[in-house]
Amino acid sequence: MTEWLDFKTFLFIYLANADLELSAEEEDYIKNGIEENTYRKHLSLFNNLSDLQALNFIIGQRSIYFENEAKKRVLLNEIKQFFQIDGDYSILERDLYILLDKMM
User: Fold this and answer.
1) Within 13 Å of residue 32, how many CA atoms lie on the same side as its CB?
2) Which of 2, 19, 86, 97 is the most exposed, fewest CB within 10 Å of its CB?
């Protein structure tokens, strides 16, 4: 497991909860390609942080995972696709996408 996959697992758990509802499609997407214990570890971490703490953790990683505009765009495109996998691109998800775009 790479640090990138650990970060991405946490990030997508955070994103999945943006609309306060973790759908089966979102959970399946997150679990694809990782071990169950990795998912559970990051879900537990997420559940023990406030929204602000989780967002600060994600933003704090920008110099590592978003060091240039190209990498940022690739991940933001994946985030937008992720928000649409359950068939409902909610206002909360859209607003979080805009916030991440500006903060990264």
Assistant:
1) 9
2) 2
Q: What is the DSSP letter of 12?
A: H
Long-range contacts for 97-104 (Cβ within 8 Å, ≥24 apart)?
A: 100/58, 100/76, 101/76, 103/59, 103/62, 104/59, 104/62, 104/66, 104/72, 104/75, 104/76
The model's pLDDT over 51-62, given as tens digits with 9 standing for 90+, comes to 999 999 998 988
- What's the CATH number where 76 sits? 1.10.3680
- DSSP type of residue 67: S
Q: What does the chain come to in residues?
A: 104
Question: By the 8 A CB rule, do 72 and 31 touch?
Answer: no
Q: Is the pTM of this model over 0.85?
A: yes
First to last CA, the chain: 24
- Do the Cβ atoms of 33 and 47 come closer than 8 Å? no
Q: For residues 15 and 80, is the Cβ–Cβ distance under 8 A? A: no
